[in-house]
Amino acid sequence: MEGVLDHRMRQLLSELNPYDLCVTEFVRVVSQPVSDKVFYRLAPELKRGGKTRNGTPVRVQLLGQDPDWLAHNAARAIELGSPGVDINFGCPAKTVNRSKGGAVLLKEPELIYRIVQAMRQAVPSDQVLSAKIRLGWDCHSRTMEIAQAIESAGANELAIHARTKADGYRAEAIKWAAIAPVAQALSIPVIANGEITDFAAGQRCQQASGCTDLMLGRGALSVPNLAAVVKNDVAPLSWSAIQGVLTEYVALEVSGDKERYFPNRIKQWFGFLRQAYPEADALFGPLRRLKRSEEIIALLEAA
User: Fold this and answer.
1) In the CATH scheme, what is the code of domain 7-232?
2) Is the pTM of this model over 0.90?
3) Do the domains at 7-232 and 239-302 have one common CATH topology?
4) Which is nearest to 145 in space by CA: 192, 118, 181?
5) What is the residue extent of each domain of the chain?
6) Can you give the pLDDT at residue 259?
7) Residue 234 burial by CB count (10 A; 0-12/13-18/19+): exposed, middle or buried?
8) Catalytic entry in 91, 139, 205, 211
9) CB 3.0-4.6 Å disulfide test: which of 26, 209, 232, 250 passes with 176?
């Protein structure tokens, strides 16, 4: 979700939905302390007690491969006000995996154990340490081993995206049932993720995975009130309501410090919206050809 689910999008979506928790875009950890400036840039909610404007908790997510530096920066995130810390072992992006971050670590359960253990020792015991994984790198034969390593190292929660890295985001590759043995074996909460696109899909995921709790990702950008749809069986927002959300989003983006990123951000979002709304699909063609904020705003206003 890097690049589009920033703090402004979290503000919008948390005000439309009954989210229990939001997680930030990942904070990349290499071999040094992350500056407070970077933490605040990616998680300005830290200045509000680690919550969105409407009070939804926002947890800082880290990504990296060095146990000591991840531990150091996890402790700093807590000091700055993050309600717990999340560690990303699921990102399938090639650039991330080439630098030995994200899903590539699924090949090394022992290293995952050492990372989680180091972070647990650095994060106060009254704060949640959560982890996000996929089923595996190219198969799910080691899912249980990975999950048990994470639990035994001291994590409090585990979110599992029900595909391998090799599966990418192919809808037909989703394997919710592969989560079920893990949910049964672990004593910590297991949260299911992947292809939860409507109320019925949420019900099927819960039944197949054995998980009560669900995590939403890309679907939350396609249907902006998806959490309400999945949790309360309400209708997706109408396109006219989406237009109101877009108006608010535009105002937030162009008045903030990221106006130069607005053209790319809005195009990314429309790439998701068009999957659920024909009106967004019709706008996507002319939108993607525009480069300046004022041109994009004029197009949206005309529509």
Assistant:
1) 3.20.20.70
2) yes
3) no
4) 181
5) 7-232, 239-302
6) 62
7) exposed
8) 91
9) 209
Report the alpha-carbon distance of residue 171 to residue 149 in Å, rounded. 28
The string of DSSP codes covering 206-246 is HHHH--S-EE-STHHHHSTTHHHHHHH-PPPPPHHHHHHHH
> Could you tell me the sign of the dihedral formed by the alpha carbons of 91, 93, 95, 99, in that order?
positive
**For tokens 């015991």, what's the residue?**
125
Q: Which class is domain 239-302?
A: mainly alpha
How many other CB atoms are found less than 10 A from the CB of residue 271? Answer: 18
- In the prediction, which pLDDT does 118 show? 98
Q: What is the pLDDT of residue 96?
A: 87
Pinpoint the alpha helices (H) of 43-103: 67-79, 94-98
CA gap 145, 236 in Å, rounded: 38
* 211 a catalytic residue: no
Rg (CA), the chain: 19
- Give pLDDT tens digits for 60-73: 999 999 999 999 99
| Residue ranges of the chain with per-residue pLDDT less than 70 | 256-259
